[in-house]
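re: that complex we talked abt at group meeting.

here r the seqs, copy pasted straight from the sheet so there may be weird spacing, ignore it
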Amino acid sequence: MKFTPEKLIDMLIKMYKIRFFEEKVDYLFALGLVHGTMHLSIGQEAVAVGAISTLKPDDYILSTHRGHGHCIAKGADINLMMAEFLGKETGYCRGRGGSMHIADVEKGNLGATGVVGGGIPIASGVGLSIKMRKTGQVVICFFGDGAANQGAFHESLNLAAIWKLPVIFLCENNMYGMSMSVEKAFAIENIAKRAGSYGFPGEVVDGNYVLAVYKVVLKAVERARKGKGPSLIECKTYRWKGHSKSDQNLYRSKEEIESWKMKCPIKRFKEKLIAEKIITNEEIKIIEENAKNIIEKAVDFAKNSPEPSVEEIFDGVYS
Amino acid sequence: MREITYAEAIREALRQEMRKDKNVFLIGEDLGIYGGAFGVTYGLLDEFGEERVRDTPISEAAIAGAALGAAITGMRPVAEIMFMDFTTIAMEQIVNQAAKIKFMFGGKAKVPMVVRTPAGSGTGAAAQHSQSLEAWFTHVPGLKVVMPSTPYDAKGLLISSIRDNNPIIFIEHKLLYKTTGEVPEEEYEIPLGVADIKRKGEDLTIVATSIMVQRAISASKELEKDGISVEIVDPRTLKPYDKKTIIESVKKTGKVIAVHEACKTGGFGAEIAAMISESEAFDYLDAPIKRLGGLDIPIPYNRNLERHAVPQVEDIINAAKELIYR
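got the structure back, here u go
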Protein backbone atom coordinates (compact mmCIF):
# COMPACT_ATOMS: atom_id res chain seq x y z
CA MET A 1 0.00 0.00 0.00
CA LYS A 2 1.36 3.38 -1.06
CA PHE A 3 0.98 6.44 1.10
CA THR A 4 1.98 9.96 0.21
CA PRO A 5 4.40 11.58 2.68
CA GLU A 6 1.71 14.17 3.41
CA LYS A 7 -0.75 11.49 4.44
CA LEU A 8 1.80 9.76 6.68
CA ILE A 9 2.82 13.00 8.34
CA ASP A 10 -0.82 14.00 8.80
CA MET A 11 -1.44 10.76 10.65
CA LEU A 12 1.58 11.31 12.86
CA ILE A 13 0.48 14.86 13.66
CA LYS A 14 -2.97 13.62 14.67
CA MET A 15 -1.47 10.98 16.94
CA TYR A 16 0.65 13.62 18.64
CA LYS A 17 -2.34 15.90 19.07
CA ILE A 18 -4.31 13.13 20.72
CA ARG A 19 -1.43 12.22 23.03
CA PHE A 20 -0.72 15.80 24.08
CA PHE A 21 -4.39 16.63 24.43
CA GLU A 22 -4.96 13.73 26.77
CA GLU A 23 -1.80 14.39 28.77
CA LYS A 24 -2.95 17.98 29.16
CA VAL A 25 -6.50 17.18 30.28
CA ASP A 26 -5.09 14.59 32.70
CA TYR A 27 -2.98 17.37 34.16
CA LEU A 28 -5.91 19.81 34.24
CA PHE A 29 -7.94 17.20 36.08
CA ALA A 30 -5.19 16.90 38.67
CA LEU A 31 -5.30 20.68 39.07
CA GLY A 32 -9.06 20.50 39.62
CA LEU A 33 -9.89 22.46 36.46
CA VAL A 34 -11.73 19.52 34.95
CA HIS A 35 -14.23 17.74 37.13
CA GLY A 36 -16.23 14.53 36.87
CA THR A 37 -14.23 11.82 35.24
CA MET A 38 -12.53 11.03 31.98
CA HIS A 39 -11.33 8.00 30.10
CA LEU A 40 -7.95 8.38 28.48
CA SER A 41 -6.90 6.53 25.36
CA ILE A 42 -3.17 7.10 25.75
CA GLY A 43 -1.49 4.17 24.02
CA GLN A 44 -4.40 3.62 21.63
CA GLU A 45 -3.82 6.53 19.25
CA ALA A 46 -3.04 4.32 16.27
CA VAL A 47 -6.54 2.88 16.26
CA ALA A 48 -8.41 6.18 16.08
CA VAL A 49 -6.03 7.71 13.55
CA GLY A 50 -5.53 4.64 11.39
CA ALA A 51 -9.25 3.93 11.15
CA ILE A 52 -10.54 7.46 10.65
CA SER A 53 -7.84 8.35 8.12
CA THR A 54 -9.58 5.97 5.71
CA LEU A 55 -12.75 8.07 5.72
CA LYS A 56 -14.00 10.88 3.55
CA PRO A 57 -15.01 14.07 5.37
CA ASP A 58 -18.74 13.33 5.16
CA ASP A 59 -18.48 9.78 6.52
CA TYR A 60 -19.70 9.14 10.03
CA ILE A 61 -18.20 7.84 13.21
CA LEU A 62 -19.75 6.80 16.49
CA SER A 63 -17.42 7.06 19.42
CA THR A 64 -17.19 5.73 22.95
CA HIS A 65 -16.58 6.95 26.48
CA ARG A 66 -12.87 6.69 25.58
CA GLY A 67 -13.37 8.89 22.57
CA HIS A 68 -11.06 11.91 22.62
CA GLY A 69 -8.85 10.31 19.98
CA HIS A 70 -11.77 9.62 17.68
CA CYS A 71 -12.88 13.24 17.89
CA ILE A 72 -9.44 14.62 17.11
CA ALA A 73 -8.87 12.15 14.30
CA LYS A 74 -12.22 13.19 12.79
CA GLY A 75 -11.02 16.75 12.70
CA ALA A 76 -12.49 18.22 15.85
CA ASP A 77 -11.59 21.76 16.80
CA ILE A 78 -9.27 21.40 19.80
CA ASN A 79 -10.45 24.73 21.21
CA LEU A 80 -14.04 23.54 21.34
CA MET A 81 -13.00 20.22 22.85
CA MET A 82 -10.96 21.87 25.56
CA ALA A 83 -13.74 24.32 26.31
CA GLU A 84 -16.10 21.38 26.74
CA PHE A 85 -13.72 19.77 29.23
CA LEU A 86 -13.78 22.96 31.22
CA GLY A 87 -17.57 22.99 31.00
CA LYS A 88 -17.72 26.22 29.06
CA GLU A 89 -20.48 27.65 26.88
CA THR A 90 -18.12 27.65 23.89
CA GLY A 91 -17.52 23.91 24.16
CA TYR A 92 -18.84 21.42 21.64
CA CYS A 93 -21.80 20.65 23.89
CA ARG A 94 -22.11 24.08 25.51
CA GLY A 95 -20.75 22.52 28.70
CA ARG A 96 -23.64 20.04 28.91
CA GLY A 97 -21.75 16.97 27.82
CA GLY A 98 -18.20 17.02 29.12
CA SER A 99 -15.50 14.51 28.24
CA MET A 100 -17.87 11.65 27.57
CA HIS A 101 -20.29 13.21 25.09
CA ILE A 102 -18.30 15.24 22.62
CA ALA A 103 -19.99 15.25 19.24
CA ASP A 104 -19.67 17.24 16.07
CA VAL A 105 -22.71 16.23 14.07
CA GLU A 106 -21.85 18.62 11.24
CA LYS A 107 -18.52 16.89 10.73
CA GLY A 108 -19.99 13.40 10.92
CA ASN A 109 -18.93 12.73 14.50
CA LEU A 110 -22.20 11.44 15.90
CA GLY A 111 -20.85 11.46 19.34
CA ALA A 112 -19.53 9.53 22.22
CA THR A 113 -21.74 7.62 24.60
CA GLY A 114 -21.33 6.92 28.27
CA VAL A 115 -23.03 3.55 28.02
CA VAL A 116 -20.76 0.70 26.99
CA GLY A 117 -22.07 -0.59 23.67
CA GLY A 118 -24.68 2.16 23.48
CA GLY A 119 -23.48 3.41 20.12
CA ILE A 120 -23.64 0.04 18.37
CA PRO A 121 -27.42 -0.02 17.73
CA ILE A 122 -27.27 3.62 16.61
CA ALA A 123 -24.56 2.73 14.10
CA SER A 124 -26.81 0.24 12.40
CA GLY A 125 -29.43 2.96 12.15
CA VAL A 126 -26.92 5.33 10.61
CA GLY A 127 -25.99 2.61 8.15
CA LEU A 128 -29.65 2.11 7.34
CA SER A 129 -30.12 5.81 6.79
CA ILE A 130 -27.09 5.93 4.47
CA LYS A 131 -28.49 3.03 2.50
CA MET A 132 -31.97 4.52 2.26
CA ARG A 133 -30.66 7.97 1.31
CA LYS A 134 -28.22 6.36 -1.17
CA THR A 135 -25.40 8.73 -0.26
CA GLY A 136 -22.48 6.29 -0.51
CA GLN A 137 -21.24 7.22 2.96
CA VAL A 138 -20.02 4.73 5.56
CA VAL A 139 -19.99 4.72 9.35
CA ILE A 140 -17.27 3.46 11.65
CA CYS A 141 -18.64 2.37 14.99
CA PHE A 142 -15.98 2.27 17.69
CA PHE A 143 -16.49 0.20 20.80
CA GLY A 144 -14.34 -1.63 23.29
CA ASP A 145 -13.87 -5.27 24.15
CA GLY A 146 -16.35 -4.85 27.00
CA ALA A 147 -19.10 -3.74 24.64
CA ALA A 148 -18.79 -6.93 22.63
CA ASN A 149 -20.46 -8.74 25.52
CA GLN A 150 -23.51 -6.47 25.61
CA GLY A 151 -26.72 -7.90 24.19
CA ALA A 152 -27.19 -4.94 21.87
CA PHE A 153 -23.97 -5.95 20.11
CA HIS A 154 -25.63 -9.13 18.92
CA GLU A 155 -28.86 -7.49 17.82
CA SER A 156 -27.11 -4.72 15.96
CA LEU A 157 -24.47 -6.73 14.14
CA ASN A 158 -27.14 -9.09 12.94
CA LEU A 159 -29.31 -6.23 11.71
CA ALA A 160 -26.38 -4.72 9.82
CA ALA A 161 -25.62 -8.12 8.33
CA ILE A 162 -29.09 -8.98 7.04
CA TRP A 163 -29.50 -5.54 5.46
CA LYS A 164 -25.88 -5.31 4.24
CA LEU A 165 -25.43 -1.94 5.91
CA PRO A 166 -22.29 0.15 5.34
CA VAL A 167 -21.04 -0.15 8.92
CA ILE A 168 -17.51 -0.91 10.09
CA PHE A 169 -17.75 -2.31 13.59
CA LEU A 170 -14.40 -1.48 15.11
CA CYS A 171 -13.56 -3.17 18.37
CA GLU A 172 -10.72 -1.53 20.25
CA ASN A 173 -9.60 -4.43 22.34
CA ASN A 174 -7.50 -2.73 24.97
CA MET A 175 -7.42 -5.91 27.02
CA TYR A 176 -9.65 -4.77 29.87
CA GLY A 177 -13.29 -3.84 30.39
CA MET A 178 -12.63 -1.65 33.41
CA SER A 179 -10.89 -4.29 35.56
CA MET A 180 -12.03 -7.43 33.77
CA SER A 181 -9.45 -8.87 31.43
CA VAL A 182 -10.48 -10.23 28.07
CA GLU A 183 -9.11 -13.60 29.17
CA LYS A 184 -11.79 -13.67 31.85
CA ALA A 185 -14.56 -12.07 29.83
CA PHE A 186 -14.26 -14.18 26.67
CA ALA A 187 -13.92 -17.88 26.02
CA ILE A 188 -12.60 -17.14 22.55
CA GLU A 189 -9.23 -15.72 21.68
CA ASN A 190 -10.35 -13.21 19.09
CA ILE A 191 -13.51 -11.12 19.29
CA ALA A 192 -13.33 -10.67 15.52
CA LYS A 193 -14.25 -14.34 15.21
CA ARG A 194 -17.80 -13.42 16.16
CA ALA A 195 -18.27 -11.81 12.75
CA GLY A 196 -18.49 -15.26 11.25
CA SER A 197 -21.65 -16.00 13.19
CA TYR A 198 -23.32 -13.02 11.53
CA GLY A 199 -22.08 -13.87 8.07
CA PHE A 200 -19.58 -11.08 7.45
CA PRO A 201 -15.78 -10.82 7.62
CA GLY A 202 -13.92 -10.33 10.84
CA GLU A 203 -10.27 -9.44 11.06
CA VAL A 204 -7.73 -9.03 13.84
CA VAL A 205 -5.11 -6.35 13.49
CA ASP A 206 -2.21 -4.95 15.49
CA GLY A 207 -3.88 -1.88 16.94
CA ASN A 208 -0.58 -0.28 17.84
CA TYR A 209 0.53 0.04 14.24
CA VAL A 210 -1.32 2.82 12.52
CA LEU A 211 -0.69 1.64 8.96
CA ALA A 212 -1.88 -1.87 9.72
CA VAL A 213 -5.09 -0.44 11.14
CA TYR A 214 -5.47 1.80 8.10
CA LYS A 215 -5.02 -1.06 5.68
CA VAL A 216 -7.55 -3.37 7.28
CA VAL A 217 -10.13 -0.65 7.87
CA LEU A 218 -9.77 0.64 4.32
CA LYS A 219 -10.65 -2.79 3.01
CA ALA A 220 -13.78 -2.80 5.16
CA VAL A 221 -14.66 0.74 4.11
CA GLU A 222 -14.36 -0.17 0.44
CA ARG A 223 -16.47 -3.24 0.97
CA ALA A 224 -19.12 -1.14 2.74
CA ARG A 225 -19.15 1.48 -0.01
CA LYS A 226 -19.70 -1.21 -2.61
CA GLY A 227 -22.85 -2.26 -0.78
CA LYS A 228 -21.39 -5.54 0.38
CA GLY A 229 -22.18 -4.91 4.00
CA PRO A 230 -20.49 -4.64 7.36
CA SER A 231 -17.20 -5.90 8.74
CA LEU A 232 -15.90 -6.44 12.25
CA ILE A 233 -12.34 -5.37 12.94
CA GLU A 234 -10.60 -6.08 16.20
CA CYS A 235 -7.66 -3.82 16.96
CA LYS A 236 -5.51 -5.28 19.71
CA THR A 237 -4.13 -2.45 21.77
CA TYR A 238 -3.66 -1.35 25.36
CA ARG A 239 -4.62 1.57 27.53
CA TRP A 240 -1.72 2.86 29.56
CA LYS A 241 -3.83 4.82 32.00
CA GLY A 242 -6.55 3.54 34.30
CA HIS A 243 -10.09 2.94 33.13
CA SER A 244 -11.21 6.27 34.57
CA LYS A 245 -10.02 8.57 37.28
CA SER A 246 -10.91 6.17 40.11
CA ASP A 247 -8.69 3.36 38.82
CA GLN A 248 -5.83 2.21 41.06
CA ASN A 249 -4.64 -0.45 38.59
CA LEU A 250 -5.07 -3.26 41.13
CA TYR A 251 -5.96 -5.76 38.43
CA ARG A 252 -2.76 -5.59 36.39
CA SER A 253 0.95 -5.39 37.01
CA LYS A 254 3.34 -2.52 36.48
CA GLU A 255 5.43 -4.86 34.35
CA GLU A 256 2.50 -5.47 32.07
CA ILE A 257 1.86 -1.76 31.64
CA GLU A 258 5.54 -1.08 31.03
CA SER A 259 5.76 -3.82 28.45
CA TRP A 260 2.98 -2.16 26.45
CA LYS A 261 4.59 1.24 26.79
CA MET A 262 7.51 -0.28 24.92
CA LYS A 263 5.09 -0.78 22.06
CA CYS A 264 4.10 2.89 21.96
CA PRO A 265 2.23 3.45 18.69
CA ILE A 266 3.59 6.96 18.24
CA LYS A 267 7.21 6.03 18.86
CA ARG A 268 6.90 3.10 16.52
CA PHE A 269 5.39 5.14 13.70
CA LYS A 270 7.78 8.01 14.18
CA GLU A 271 10.81 5.73 14.03
CA LYS A 272 9.49 4.10 10.89
CA LEU A 273 9.02 7.46 9.18
CA ILE A 274 12.49 8.56 10.20
CA ALA A 275 14.04 5.28 9.04
CA GLU A 276 12.32 5.67 5.70
CA LYS A 277 13.54 9.25 5.49
CA ILE A 278 10.02 10.61 5.21
CA ILE A 279 10.67 12.91 8.10
CA THR A 280 13.67 14.11 10.07
CA ASN A 281 14.18 14.37 13.82
CA GLU A 282 14.14 18.12 13.48
CA GLU A 283 10.81 18.04 11.69
CA ILE A 284 9.43 15.78 14.40
CA LYS A 285 10.45 18.34 17.02
CA ILE A 286 8.56 21.02 15.09
CA ILE A 287 5.50 18.81 14.85
CA GLU A 288 5.62 18.18 18.58
CA GLU A 289 6.01 21.86 19.34
CA ASN A 290 3.15 22.80 17.04
CA ALA A 291 0.88 20.19 18.58
CA LYS A 292 1.74 21.40 22.07
CA ASN A 293 1.09 24.98 21.05
CA ILE A 294 -2.33 24.12 19.69
CA ILE A 295 -3.19 22.44 22.97
CA GLU A 296 -1.91 25.36 25.04
CA LYS A 297 -3.87 27.84 22.96
CA ALA A 298 -6.94 25.68 23.47
CA VAL A 299 -6.44 25.81 27.22
CA ASP A 300 -6.27 29.61 27.03
CA PHE A 301 -9.37 29.69 24.84
CA ALA A 302 -11.23 27.45 27.28
CA LYS A 303 -10.11 29.36 30.37
CA ASN A 304 -11.18 32.65 28.81
CA SER A 305 -14.56 31.33 27.66
CA PRO A 306 -17.79 32.10 29.48
CA GLU A 307 -19.64 29.69 31.72
CA PRO A 308 -23.04 28.54 30.46
CA SER A 309 -25.84 30.63 31.87
CA VAL A 310 -28.25 29.09 34.33
CA GLU A 311 -31.09 30.92 32.56
CA GLU A 312 -30.50 28.64 29.57
CA ILE A 313 -30.40 25.40 31.52
CA PHE A 314 -33.37 23.97 29.61
CA ASP A 315 -31.84 24.59 26.19
CA GLY A 316 -31.51 21.49 24.09
CA VAL A 317 -33.86 19.24 26.05
CA TYR A 318 -36.34 19.58 23.20
CA SER A 319 -36.11 20.89 19.65
CA MET B 1 -68.29 12.67 8.40
CA ARG B 2 -67.14 9.10 7.77
CA GLU B 3 -66.30 6.88 10.70
CA ILE B 4 -63.22 4.68 10.83
CA THR B 5 -61.52 2.68 13.55
CA TYR B 6 -58.68 3.79 15.76
CA ALA B 7 -56.39 1.31 14.00
CA GLU B 8 -57.47 2.62 10.59
CA ALA B 9 -56.90 6.18 11.73
CA ILE B 10 -53.33 5.33 12.73
CA ARG B 11 -52.74 3.51 9.45
CA GLU B 12 -54.12 6.47 7.53
CA ALA B 13 -51.79 8.85 9.34
CA LEU B 14 -48.83 6.61 8.53
CA ARG B 15 -49.87 6.26 4.89
CA GLN B 16 -50.42 9.97 4.36
CA GLU B 17 -47.15 10.96 6.02
CA MET B 18 -45.24 8.32 4.05
CA ARG B 19 -46.73 9.62 0.81
CA LYS B 20 -45.87 13.15 1.74
CA ASP B 21 -42.32 12.65 3.01
CA LYS B 22 -40.01 10.00 1.55
CA ASN B 23 -37.90 10.10 4.70
CA VAL B 24 -40.71 8.63 6.77
CA PHE B 25 -40.42 4.86 7.11
CA LEU B 26 -41.64 2.11 9.38
CA ILE B 27 -39.38 -0.28 11.26
CA GLY B 28 -40.35 -3.08 13.59
CA GLU B 29 -41.36 -6.69 13.95
CA ASP B 30 -43.86 -8.26 11.56
CA LEU B 31 -45.09 -4.98 10.11
CA GLY B 32 -45.09 -6.08 6.48
CA ILE B 33 -47.06 -9.10 5.27
CA TYR B 34 -48.33 -9.76 8.77
CA GLY B 35 -49.46 -6.16 9.16
CA GLY B 36 -48.27 -5.83 12.74
CA ALA B 37 -49.46 -7.90 15.69
CA PHE B 38 -52.70 -5.87 15.75
CA GLY B 39 -52.99 -5.29 12.02
CA VAL B 40 -52.29 -1.58 12.22
CA THR B 41 -49.79 -1.52 9.36
CA TYR B 42 -51.70 -4.01 7.24
CA GLY B 43 -51.51 -3.17 3.54
CA LEU B 44 -48.78 -0.56 3.81
CA LEU B 45 -46.20 -3.00 2.45
CA ASP B 46 -48.10 -3.14 -0.86
CA GLU B 47 -47.91 0.57 -1.35
CA PHE B 48 -44.47 1.36 0.07
CA GLY B 49 -42.45 -1.84 -0.28
CA GLU B 50 -40.00 -3.59 2.00
CA GLU B 51 -37.58 -0.70 2.03
CA ARG B 52 -39.98 1.57 3.89
CA VAL B 53 -42.08 -0.99 5.70
CA ARG B 54 -39.11 -2.66 7.21
CA ASP B 55 -39.53 -5.94 9.04
CA THR B 56 -36.83 -6.58 11.63
CA PRO B 57 -35.68 -9.62 13.55
CA ILE B 58 -36.87 -9.83 17.14
CA SER B 59 -34.39 -7.25 18.37
CA GLU B 60 -36.02 -4.39 20.22
CA ALA B 61 -32.78 -2.68 21.25
CA ALA B 62 -31.66 -2.74 17.62
CA ILE B 63 -35.03 -1.41 16.45
CA ALA B 64 -34.83 1.57 18.77
CA GLY B 65 -31.18 2.14 17.99
CA ALA B 66 -31.75 1.86 14.26
CA ALA B 67 -34.56 4.38 14.47
CA LEU B 68 -32.34 6.72 16.46
CA GLY B 69 -29.37 6.40 14.14
CA ALA B 70 -31.59 7.01 11.14
CA ALA B 71 -33.27 9.96 12.82
CA ILE B 72 -30.05 11.82 13.62
CA THR B 73 -28.89 11.44 10.02
CA GLY B 74 -31.93 12.80 8.24
CA MET B 75 -34.68 10.20 8.27
CA ARG B 76 -38.04 10.20 10.10
CA PRO B 77 -38.48 6.67 11.36
CA VAL B 78 -41.62 5.37 12.96
CA ALA B 79 -40.66 2.32 14.98
CA GLU B 80 -43.14 -0.16 16.33
CA ILE B 81 -42.48 -2.10 19.50
CA MET B 82 -45.01 -4.91 19.33
CA PHE B 83 -46.09 -4.71 22.97
CA MET B 84 -45.30 -1.92 25.37
CA ASP B 85 -43.88 -4.55 27.71
CA PHE B 86 -41.08 -5.07 25.18
CA THR B 87 -39.99 -1.45 25.37
CA THR B 88 -38.03 -2.65 28.40
CA ILE B 89 -35.64 -4.33 25.98
CA ALA B 90 -35.24 -1.08 24.04
CA MET B 91 -35.04 1.07 27.14
CA GLU B 92 -31.31 1.80 27.02
CA GLN B 93 -31.56 3.21 23.52
CA ILE B 94 -34.72 5.19 24.26
CA VAL B 95 -33.84 6.55 27.70
CA ASN B 96 -30.06 6.91 27.69
CA GLN B 97 -29.52 7.64 24.03
CA ALA B 98 -32.53 9.02 22.14
CA ALA B 99 -33.84 11.19 24.96
CA LYS B 100 -30.48 12.71 25.83
CA ILE B 101 -28.44 12.99 22.65
CA LYS B 102 -29.72 16.42 21.75
CA PHE B 103 -29.09 17.85 25.21
CA MET B 104 -25.73 16.13 25.70
CA PHE B 105 -24.56 17.52 22.36
CA GLY B 106 -25.48 21.06 23.35
CA GLY B 107 -28.68 21.03 21.31
CA LYS B 108 -26.89 20.23 18.06
CA ALA B 109 -28.88 17.21 16.89
CA LYS B 110 -32.43 16.48 15.80
CA VAL B 111 -34.11 13.26 16.80
CA PRO B 112 -37.32 13.01 14.77
CA MET B 113 -38.39 9.50 15.75
CA VAL B 114 -41.63 7.97 16.90
CA VAL B 115 -41.92 4.74 18.84
CA ARG B 116 -45.45 3.39 18.47
CA THR B 117 -46.42 0.76 20.96
CA PRO B 118 -49.66 -0.87 22.10
CA ALA B 119 -50.27 -0.93 25.83
CA GLY B 120 -52.97 -2.09 28.17
CA SER B 121 -54.81 -5.12 29.43
CA GLY B 122 -58.13 -6.68 28.54
CA THR B 123 -56.92 -9.14 25.95
CA GLY B 124 -56.17 -12.06 28.25
CA ALA B 125 -52.49 -11.85 27.43
CA ALA B 126 -51.43 -11.77 31.09
CA ALA B 127 -48.56 -10.09 32.85
CA GLN B 128 -45.95 -9.64 30.10
CA HIS B 129 -48.24 -8.41 27.32
CA SER B 130 -50.57 -6.04 29.15
CA GLN B 131 -48.65 -3.31 30.90
CA SER B 132 -49.18 0.42 30.82
CA LEU B 133 -45.75 1.91 31.38
CA GLU B 134 -46.36 5.51 30.33
CA ALA B 135 -45.33 6.98 33.68
CA TRP B 136 -41.80 5.66 33.24
CA PHE B 137 -41.39 7.59 30.04
CA THR B 138 -42.89 10.80 31.40
CA HIS B 139 -40.05 10.76 33.92
CA VAL B 140 -37.44 11.12 31.18
CA PRO B 141 -36.64 14.65 29.98
CA GLY B 142 -36.17 14.70 26.23
CA LEU B 143 -39.03 12.31 25.47
CA LYS B 144 -42.59 13.25 24.60
CA VAL B 145 -45.38 10.88 25.55
CA VAL B 146 -48.61 10.71 23.58
CA MET B 147 -51.68 8.62 24.47
CA PRO B 148 -54.67 9.04 22.15
CA SER B 149 -58.12 7.86 23.22
CA THR B 150 -60.12 8.30 20.00
CA PRO B 151 -59.59 7.66 16.27
CA TYR B 152 -59.68 11.41 15.61
CA ASP B 153 -56.98 12.10 18.19
CA ALA B 154 -54.93 9.12 17.10
CA LYS B 155 -54.62 10.39 13.54
CA GLY B 156 -53.95 14.02 14.34
CA LEU B 157 -51.54 13.28 17.16
CA LEU B 158 -49.61 10.74 15.13
CA ILE B 159 -49.20 13.19 12.25
CA SER B 160 -47.92 15.80 14.69
CA SER B 161 -45.62 13.25 16.28
CA ILE B 162 -44.09 12.22 12.95
CA ARG B 163 -43.47 15.87 12.07
CA ASP B 164 -41.97 16.64 15.48
CA ASN B 165 -38.18 16.75 15.87
CA ASN B 166 -38.10 14.96 19.21
CA PRO B 167 -38.28 11.29 20.22
CA ILE B 168 -41.89 10.42 20.91
CA ILE B 169 -43.44 7.47 22.68
CA PHE B 170 -46.81 7.01 21.04
CA ILE B 171 -48.92 4.73 23.19
CA GLU B 172 -51.89 3.00 21.62
CA HIS B 173 -54.42 0.91 23.51
CA LYS B 174 -55.21 -2.56 22.21
CA LEU B 175 -58.87 -2.39 23.18
CA LEU B 176 -59.26 0.90 21.33
CA TYR B 177 -58.05 -0.42 17.97
CA LYS B 178 -61.54 -1.50 16.92
CA THR B 179 -63.40 1.48 18.34
CA THR B 180 -64.79 3.86 15.72
CA GLY B 181 -65.17 7.57 15.41
CA GLU B 182 -65.35 10.43 12.97
CA VAL B 183 -62.07 11.14 11.27
CA PRO B 184 -61.48 13.63 8.44
CA GLU B 185 -59.93 12.16 5.31
CA GLU B 186 -57.44 14.98 4.92
CA GLU B 187 -54.30 15.37 6.99
CA TYR B 188 -54.49 17.44 10.15
CA GLU B 189 -52.30 18.02 13.17
CA ILE B 190 -53.30 18.03 16.80
CA PRO B 191 -50.66 19.96 18.73
CA LEU B 192 -48.81 18.01 21.39
CA GLY B 193 -49.46 19.32 24.87
CA VAL B 194 -53.05 20.42 24.36
CA ALA B 195 -55.79 18.65 26.31
CA ASP B 196 -59.26 18.04 24.98
CA ILE B 197 -62.44 18.34 26.96
CA LYS B 198 -64.23 15.21 25.88
CA ARG B 199 -67.40 16.14 27.71
CA LYS B 200 -68.51 19.36 29.35
CA GLY B 201 -69.84 19.21 32.89
CA GLU B 202 -70.31 21.15 36.12
CA ASP B 203 -70.15 18.89 39.19
CA LEU B 204 -67.00 16.86 38.82
CA THR B 205 -63.86 16.70 36.69
CA ILE B 206 -62.48 13.39 35.53
CA VAL B 207 -58.98 13.53 34.09
CA ALA B 208 -58.67 10.31 32.13
CA THR B 209 -56.09 8.87 29.74
CA SER B 210 -56.31 6.42 26.85
CA ILE B 211 -59.04 3.80 27.27
CA MET B 212 -60.11 5.37 30.56
CA VAL B 213 -61.50 8.28 28.58
CA GLN B 214 -63.97 5.90 26.98
CA ARG B 215 -64.82 4.35 30.35
CA ALA B 216 -65.23 7.78 31.89
CA ILE B 217 -67.62 8.73 29.09
CA SER B 218 -69.68 5.60 29.74
CA ALA B 219 -69.64 6.35 33.49
CA SER B 220 -70.65 9.94 32.94
CA LYS B 221 -73.72 8.85 30.97
CA GLU B 222 -74.83 6.72 33.93
CA LEU B 223 -74.03 9.48 36.40
CA GLU B 224 -76.08 11.89 34.35
CA LYS B 225 -79.14 9.80 35.14
CA ASP B 226 -78.53 10.64 38.80
CA GLY B 227 -78.19 14.29 37.94
CA ILE B 228 -74.40 14.33 38.20
CA SER B 229 -72.77 16.40 35.50
CA VAL B 230 -69.23 15.25 34.70
CA GLU B 231 -66.52 17.10 32.80
CA ILE B 232 -63.97 14.82 31.18
CA VAL B 233 -60.52 16.16 30.44
CA ASP B 234 -58.30 14.05 28.21
CA PRO B 235 -54.69 15.34 28.37
CA ARG B 236 -53.96 13.38 25.15
CA THR B 237 -50.26 13.93 25.66
CA LEU B 238 -48.67 13.28 29.04
CA LYS B 239 -45.39 14.95 28.23
CA PRO B 240 -45.78 17.80 27.73
CA TYR B 241 -49.19 18.00 29.37
CA ASP B 242 -51.77 20.70 29.50
CA LYS B 243 -51.96 21.81 33.10
CA LYS B 244 -54.07 24.86 32.38
CA THR B 245 -57.08 23.01 31.02
CA ILE B 246 -57.07 20.69 34.02
CA ILE B 247 -56.73 23.57 36.47
CA GLU B 248 -59.54 25.53 34.84
CA SER B 249 -61.84 22.53 34.93
CA VAL B 250 -61.11 21.82 38.59
CA LYS B 251 -61.68 25.46 39.48
CA LYS B 252 -65.09 25.13 37.92
CA THR B 253 -66.16 21.81 39.44
CA GLY B 254 -64.22 21.72 42.74
CA LYS B 255 -63.93 17.94 42.55
CA VAL B 256 -61.56 15.78 40.56
CA ILE B 257 -60.76 12.16 39.84
CA ALA B 258 -57.65 11.17 37.93
CA VAL B 259 -58.04 7.80 36.29
CA HIS B 260 -55.65 5.63 34.34
CA GLU B 261 -55.08 1.97 33.72
CA ALA B 262 -51.47 1.87 34.91
CA CYS B 263 -50.74 0.85 38.49
CA LYS B 264 -51.87 3.53 40.89
CA THR B 265 -48.59 3.78 42.79
CA GLY B 266 -46.31 6.11 40.89
CA GLY B 267 -48.86 6.44 38.12
CA PHE B 268 -49.51 9.61 36.16
CA GLY B 269 -52.54 10.32 38.37
CA ALA B 270 -50.11 11.12 41.15
CA GLU B 271 -48.56 13.80 38.97
CA ILE B 272 -51.95 15.25 38.13
CA ALA B 273 -53.03 15.25 41.79
CA ALA B 274 -49.82 16.85 42.92
CA MET B 275 -49.97 19.44 40.16
CA ILE B 276 -53.54 20.41 41.11
CA SER B 277 -52.65 20.66 44.79
CA GLU B 278 -49.76 22.97 43.96
CA SER B 279 -51.93 25.12 41.71
CA GLU B 280 -54.47 27.85 42.22
CA ALA B 281 -57.15 25.16 41.80
CA PHE B 282 -56.32 23.87 45.29
CA ASP B 283 -58.39 26.64 46.88
CA TYR B 284 -61.38 25.60 44.80
CA LEU B 285 -61.37 21.95 45.89
CA ASP B 286 -64.45 20.81 47.81
CA ALA B 287 -63.09 17.33 48.37
CA PRO B 288 -59.80 15.47 48.38
CA ILE B 289 -58.40 14.62 44.97
CA LYS B 290 -59.19 11.05 44.08
CA ARG B 291 -57.00 8.73 42.06
CA LEU B 292 -58.14 5.59 40.30
CA GLY B 293 -55.52 3.31 38.86
CA GLY B 294 -54.66 -0.31 38.36
CA LEU B 295 -54.06 -2.49 41.37
CA ASP B 296 -50.39 -2.85 42.27
CA ILE B 297 -50.19 -6.32 40.78
CA PRO B 298 -49.03 -7.79 37.48
CA ILE B 299 -52.00 -8.22 35.12
CA PRO B 300 -53.53 -11.64 35.83
CA TYR B 301 -54.70 -14.05 33.14
CA ASN B 302 -58.12 -15.07 34.51
CA ARG B 303 -60.85 -13.01 32.85
CA ASN B 304 -62.45 -11.89 36.08
CA LEU B 305 -59.18 -11.17 37.83
CA GLU B 306 -57.91 -9.27 34.81
CA ARG B 307 -61.02 -7.12 34.80
CA HIS B 308 -60.61 -6.40 38.51
CA ALA B 309 -56.99 -5.38 38.10
CA VAL B 310 -57.79 -2.11 36.35
CA PRO B 311 -60.51 0.54 36.71
CA GLN B 312 -63.83 -0.31 35.06
CA VAL B 313 -66.87 1.86 34.35
CA GLU B 314 -68.49 0.91 37.67
CA ASP B 315 -65.35 1.86 39.57
CA ILE B 316 -65.46 5.31 38.05
CA ILE B 317 -69.17 5.64 38.86
CA ASN B 318 -68.56 4.60 42.46
CA ALA B 319 -65.64 6.95 42.86
CA ALA B 320 -67.69 9.80 41.44
CA LYS B 321 -70.56 9.13 43.80
CA GLU B 322 -68.20 8.96 46.77
CA LEU B 323 -66.96 12.42 45.90
CA ILE B 324 -70.38 13.89 45.20
CA TYR B 325 -72.21 12.39 48.20
CA ARG B 326 -69.41 12.65 50.78
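couple things i noticed - The first strand of chain A starts at residue 60 and ends at 62. Chain A has one domain: 5-301.
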